[in-house]
Amino acid sequence: MTIPGERYYEQLADDAEAGDLAPAGPRLTGEAARRAALALFRETIGTDDPDEIMRRGRPRLAGTSSTVTGASPRWNLRVSEDLNAAVDRVARESGRPKSEVIRQLVARQIDALDQSS
């Protein structure tokens, strides 16, 4: 099983490295580039206010209190090569990010432990 679009992105990377990519449209500079960027922000995130755009950042993970602000908690841990390879394989085969796979596996294990006690 391959990651959706993997072949496309591999070809795109090969083309970029070979210098074979053509611009998708006219090159924008100065005021035209600024207007195009602001229009893209309005279309994709609903605002072109620079302060609002910078405040948004990455959303907190689901299940986190809406009254808490700031970044979601992060873990930094070491794992064996075998475990790393297994998680990489599951992520690749399921087409999901590695961090999502790890969160789901940890949550399932905690649920199983809670049910057995």
Give the gist of this structure.
The chain is mainly α. The chain has 5 helices and no strands.
Structure, explained:
This protein has 117 residues and is mostly helical. It has two domains: 26-57, no CATH class; 67-117, Arc Repressor Mutant (Orthogonal Bundle). Helices cover 59% and strands 0% of the residues. The protein has five helices and no strands. The chain has helices at residues 6-18, 30-45, 50-56, 81-94, 98-116. Helix 4 packs across helix 5. The two termini are 37 Å apart.
Kindly state the mean pLDDT as a whole number? 82
Radius of gyration: 21 Å
What letter string, H or E per element, gives the SSE order? HHHHH
Assigned CATH architecture of the largest domain: Orthogonal Bundle
Provide a count of the helices.
Answer: 5
Tell me the structural class.
mainly alpha
Topology:
Blueprint (H helix, E strand, L loop, with lengths): L5 H13 L11 H16 L4 H7 L24 H14 L3 H19 L1
Helix pairs in contact: 4-5
Pfam family, one: RHH_1
Organism: Rothia santali
Protein name: Ribbon-helix-helix domain-containing protein
What labels would you give this structure?
59% helix, 2 domains, 0% strand, mainly alpha, 117 residues, flat
